Amino acid sequence: MANKSNLKRIRDILLSDTNDTDDDITDDQESDLDSDFDTSAIESDDTSADEHISEESDSSNSDTGENDIFTNSQPETIEKAGVTWSSYQNKKNSRISAAKIMKIKSGSSTKVQTILDSFKLFFTDELLDDIVFHTNRYAEQCFDQIQRSRQEFNTTKLKSRRWIPMDRVELESFIGLLIQSGINRSNHELLSELWDISQSRPLYRATMSLQRFKYLLRFIRFDDRQGRNKTDRLAPVRHMFERFVKQLPRHFIPSENLTIDEQLVPFRGRCRFVQYIPKKSVKYGLKFWVLSDADSRYVLSIDLYTGKKDNIIQKDLRTNVVLHLVDQLPNNVKQGRSITFDRYFTDLKLSEALMDRKMTSVGIVEHKRSFLPNELKLCRKELFASWFYFSGPHMLLSYQAKEKKKPVVLLSSAHEFAEVFDDEKRLPCAIHDYNQTKGGVDAIDQCIENYTVRRISRRWPMVVFYNMIDIGAINAMTIWLCQNSSWNVKRTNTRRIFLTQLSKALTNLQLQRRSKEVRLMPKITKDHNNHSNTFGVVSFSKLSMAQNAFTTLNGLELNNGENLYIQFYENTEDHEQKTDVKSHEHRKLYIRNLDENIDNQKLKQAFSVYGKVKSARVMMKRGVSQGYGVPDIKNSLASRYNLQ
Asked: In the sheet that 613-618 helps form, which strands lie side by side, from edge to edge?
């Protein structure tokens, strides 16, 4: 279990990094969005709360006239909407007492051995396999369609291409590269720059080719498009998203303070439920409802708002959102927790529904609420004065924070007594507790922005997928630190270290697998004077001929004093056609350190003694030899010397 000092350290780590993410927009070579969800209309936000209360006063900024000034004498009782409120404190309420008893202490509930294990608590093998299945099926359909179109236009001379199936290991490495981009804040850079060898980013090239990464970005899918429910706006991601959400509350027991708020993820593509919130910095995006632990910044539940139905605002939306998020928690975890939310959610009926679940709540009340008595809305002459009223387990508080401003009104079922701080402002304890716990979701959103994996995309399902990775990484670190409280305790960049190790763990199996493959990738190389080296490629009709030439000539000393360097070469097209027997009837040799006077004809004649040479050419550009390095993945040390 996690103690308070450990939870405080987790909170400090998540908020320690400054946000300097690059906002430049670049092309990520993704495909068009799904045609079933191509509506370009953008909804204005119909659920956004009023502007958040300041830490200092939490007061409304609306001015009041002289006619609105109310007498300083506090009425003993007030009534509104059939509910009577009394200024006298209640006797000990059994419902409040039961709602304040925590049966289970906070902390991690699942043991993990490695950082990768903590992340895979949320991205389970079942979830990843489902993504792999849908991605492979969609990619194969696209490749088959391309092949048929080529045949229709008589372009059969072009080499046929087929989709190489993706597996779980490759998908994990794909996620690892996305996390690595977030660490370096390079998720908005051109992909060609990430794979550029001169940029000193070897992890990308070692994990997969640039073209393969582009293919995964383009073809990754999360559902069966043909069997999709056309009336379900969340259909493209529902199955994946619900699996992810179910895992969130299973592995962590929250502290006594929870927070519910909105999260706006930037997105400007075509989507039926894109929200426009002018008060937000990003303004356009997908809106998520988030339930989080206010102390540890752990996301317990999340839901995607899909907009109005039939252009009609949903009735009791605020109550349904909160109860849906809360009901994701186990019953024994609900009891004893207090939920803090902003003025959009605060409602007397919602507070009653939470009390039935043995949970308390704290929230600022909008002045237009039907249950709020008019006496509590009016400005008072006495500054920093507080009026407390009680009805059953609920407490209404009206606090005059500023002169000639409407007072702050707060509804709480977590506070039984009229308590204020003994200082100049006489701030009520209930408002202080609200200010301390209201920022749980905002803090998580800030943490995500620091190292987000999000890339600019035209497909909203990808935005949901990126947000799942960001949330999964934050939750994984919280669980890891709960069980390893002394891990990198003296470091100030603990979260960056965690994400770096997570990225390496996700790509490790793919790196090991690729290191065993005989797959060569061409790369132009230059010496320290920026002059091209001389290279050539000879293609034999049979593998035995290439092996004979390799055995005889590799390491041979040339007239210029250099040693002839020969290596087997296999281009991308040959690798993708390995199932084709004909593709194995010829092999290429990679030849280095040729004399500058060697041309294609001389190269072919020199190797003809070892067998039938299908083709031979020296890389030239404007009459000058060009440099192409072909690293041997099977021998990484030799490949490194070759590239350098």
From this structure: 565-569, 587-592, 535-540, 613-618
Q: How far is CA 277 from its chain centroid?
A: 21
Give the CB-side neighbour count of residue 452, counting CA atoms within 13 A: 24
Mention every residue, 6+ apart, whose C-beta is less than 8 A from residue 220: 131, 135, 174, 462, 465
Q: Which residues of the chain have pLDDT under 50?
A: 18-41, 44, 46, 48-61, 66-67, 518-527, 532, 572-586, 626-644
Dist. CA 617–CA 598, nearest whole Å:
10
Residues counted in the chain:
644
Phi and psi of 363, rounded to 5°?
Answer: -165, 150
The pairing of beta strand 257-266 with beta strand 535-540:
unpaired
**Please, where are the H alpha helices in 104-237?**
115-119, 125-152, 168-183, 191-194, 202-207, 210-219
Give the Cβ contact number of residue 137 at 10 Å.
Answer: 17
Burial class, 386, CB count within 10 angstroms (exposed 0-12 / middle 13-18 / buried 19+)? buried
Pairing type for strands 275-276 and 284-293 reads antiparallel
Q: What's the confidence (pLDDT) of residue 126?
A: 95
pLDDT at position 99 is 63
pLDDT digits (tens, 9 = 90+) for 238-292: 999 999 999 999 999 999 999 999 999 999 988 989 999 888 888 899 999 999 9
Instruction: Please state the pTM of the whole predicted model.
Output: 0.73
| Half-sphere CA count of 80, side-chain side, radius 13 A | 16
| DSSP helix/strand/coil, 417 | coil
- With the CA atoms of 574, 576, 578 and 583 taken in that order, what torsion angle do they form, in degrees rounded to the nearest 10? -30
State whether residue 241 is helix, strand or coil. Answer: helix
Q: Say how far apart CA 371 and CA 367 lie, in whole Å.
A: 10
pLDDT (0 to 100) of residue 16: 63
Q: What is the pLDDT of residues 84-119, one digit of tens each?
A: 898 887 666 656 666 666 667 778 888 999 999 999
Q: Distance between CA 263 and CA 45 in Å, rounded?
A: 13
CA atoms within 13 A on the CB side of 133: 11
